Structure to design on (328 residues):
């Protein structure tokens, strides 16, 4: 739940990038951090293993101005994608306000995308949250690989696999080059702010 | 969520019991990693937002470890450094008080003062 501080007139919103390992969650945050470095006052925090895999989470906070006198601070988190780190993923989801599910379009990741989404549903339940009630955006990442002739899952199949029941906004993206990274971010921010506005203002 | 009076009262208890006793920084955070209030002795450049996110993660990880060994919780955590140390104390189900203090202040004093602040914050929350 977003933290509203009536004294400092601040609202802190937590958005988590979730998805299978090596799907591009950290790359999304790195792109945002590098592109908007001048406007972001805090450093990005990354807790990673020696071989550069996310161990606990990445954290990137920035403010997006004021709404009705309240300074709105967006705090982006990623979870570690590797299967063995599920206990950690569950911890990072505590207090989440909005989720970006980063799916990997490479063919061999099809099963892992589905497993990861199912696990997200289960993990949210441990926090008494329902995936169907939370702001959620799908991001089908690594579309640049299609142009390189890599074996990929067509977007229609990804929609069937992951979004046929949820029916949330979905973007094809290429996080490495920044393609649709900001579109995804803007969408989840606007959806999250809309969902918490009754609570806030 | 805290109202203005509660936040003022929390600030007052933190300042009078901890900051005035010579600790360097005090951050009161929620378990999601948000800083609710923060105070320092005037000589700090701490990145509070990053610190709050890491501290909540740290506390949550230790809490999960406690459950694995059959403990309901570890309500107190302490990290000792060469110049500064950090003391974590659970206040309510959803909040943690973090105190950073120099080696000139003993852990015993910090624990005593933190315990007082924790009691007062609980009273403020239930009022």
């Amino acid at each position: 739940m977003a933290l509203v501080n009536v004294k400092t007139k601040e609202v802190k919103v937590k958005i988590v990038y979730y998805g299978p390992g090596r799907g591009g969650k950290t790359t999304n945050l790195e792109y945002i951090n590098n592109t908007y470095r001048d406007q972001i006052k805090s450093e990005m925090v990354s807790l990673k293993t020696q071989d550069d895999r996310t161990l606990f989470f990445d954290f990137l906070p920035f403010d997006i101005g004021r709404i009705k006198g309240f300074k709105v601070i967006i705090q982006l988190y990623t979870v570690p994608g590797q299967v063995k780190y599920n206990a950690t993923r569950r911890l990072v989801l505590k207090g989440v306000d909005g989720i970006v599910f980063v799916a990997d379009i490479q063919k061999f990741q099809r099963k892992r995308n589905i497993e990861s989404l199912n696990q997200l549903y289960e993990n949210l339940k441990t926090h008494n949250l329902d995936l169907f009630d939370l702001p959620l955006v799908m991001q089908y990442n690594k579309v640049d690989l299609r142009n390189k002739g890599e074996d990929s899952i067509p977007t229609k199949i990804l929609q069937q696999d992951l979004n046929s029941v949820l029916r949330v906004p979905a973007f094809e993206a290429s996080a490495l080059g920044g393609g649709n990274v900001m579109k995804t971010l803007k969408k989840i921010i606007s959806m999250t702010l809309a969902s918490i506005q009754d609570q806030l203002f | 969520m805290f109202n203005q009076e509660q936040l003022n009262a929390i600030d007052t208890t933190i300042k009078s019991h901890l900051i005035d006793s010579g600790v360097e920084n005090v951050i009161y955070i929620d378990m999601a990693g948000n800083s609710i209030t923060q105070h320092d002795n005037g000589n700090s450049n701490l990145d509070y937002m990053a610190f709050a996110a890491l501290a909540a993660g740290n506390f949550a990880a230790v809490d999960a470890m406690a459950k694995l060994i059959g403990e309901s919780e570890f309500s107190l955590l302490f990290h000792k450094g060469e110049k500064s140390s950090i003391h974590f104390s659970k206040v309510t189900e959803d909040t943690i008080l973090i105190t950073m203090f120099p080696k000139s202040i003993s852990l015993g004093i910090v624990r005593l003062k933190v315990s007082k602040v924790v009691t007062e914050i609980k009273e403020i929350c239930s009022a």
Summary: Helices of chain B lie at 4-17, 48-68, 107-126. Residues 48-68 of chain B form the longest helix (21 residues). The beta strands of chain B are 25-30, 35-40, 76-79, 84-92, 95-102. Chain B is about 45% helix and 25% strand.
